[in-house]
Design brief:
CATH class of the largest domain: Mainly Alpha
Strand content: under 5%
Number of domains: 2
Helix content: 55-70%
Order of helices and strands: HHHHHHHHH
CATH architecture of the largest domain: Up-down Bundle
Shape: globular
CATH topology of the largest domain: AhpD-like
Number of helices: 9
């Protein structure tokens, strides 16, 4: 699938910096660059998220991938798995995020974070007092607020990419372990 809006030409310096960071220019930035104000704001806020350090980076990475799998943003799932490799996260775990409920590799805390990410992503959100309190008790207020804001931003980014028709660029092909696929919801017809 091609993006629903053609890619815009980025400033040369920005393109070069992105290629240095990721090996190629991310399509979401090219698509959103039709509005440089939107693209720049997105890039700036995304960079600020990278500075947050109250919540564990691995938990945030797994939460990002859980949101991407649920929303259906193959680009976010692809790049999230690729970034997990460069954050030295456990790639066996990262590869299993799309099927975390069936996988046995996650700790109870990781499972609760993945459940929380999905509950925040549901429309309407399905976060329960018990789930929130359990995470708050283990993470503390600063990390809980950070994790919640992080998941909210990831929801915006994944939905933006999915709506714009941005799909995987193959970043995760560099990872040694294949990325698992999300199981079909029970009672759903198989995808054509």
């Amino acid at each position: 699938m091609a993006p629903r809006v053609p890619k815009a030409e980025l400033p040369v310096e920005l393109s070069e910096n992105l290629v240095k960071q990721l090996g190629e220019v991310p399509e979401p930035i090219e698509v959103v660059w039709h509005s440089p104000k939107v693209a720049t704001s997105n890039l700036e806020f995304s960079a600020k998220l990278g500075e947050w350090d109250a919540a564990d980076a691995g938990l945030k990475s797994f939460a990002h991938m859980a949101v991407a799998a649920q929303v259906g943003c193959s680009w976010c799932l692809d790049v999230g798995y690729f970034q997990a490799q460069h954050q030295d996260l456990d790639l066996t775990k990262a590869s299993q995020v799309p099927r975390w409920r069936e996988s046995e590799v996650f700790t109870p805390l990781e499972r609760d974070v993945l459940e929380y990410a999905e509950a925040m992503t549901n429309t309407p959100p399905t976060v329960t007092d018990e789930l929130y309190a359990g995470l708050l008790g283990r993470l503390g207020p600063a990390a809980m607020v950070e994790l919640t804001a992080y998941i909210a931003f990831v929801n915006m980014a994944t939905r933006n990419n999915a709506a714009n028709g941005v799909t995987s660029q193959g970043f995760s092909d560099a990872c040694e372990i294949p990325l698992a696929t999300r199981p079909e919801p029970s009672g759903a017809a198989p995808a054509a």
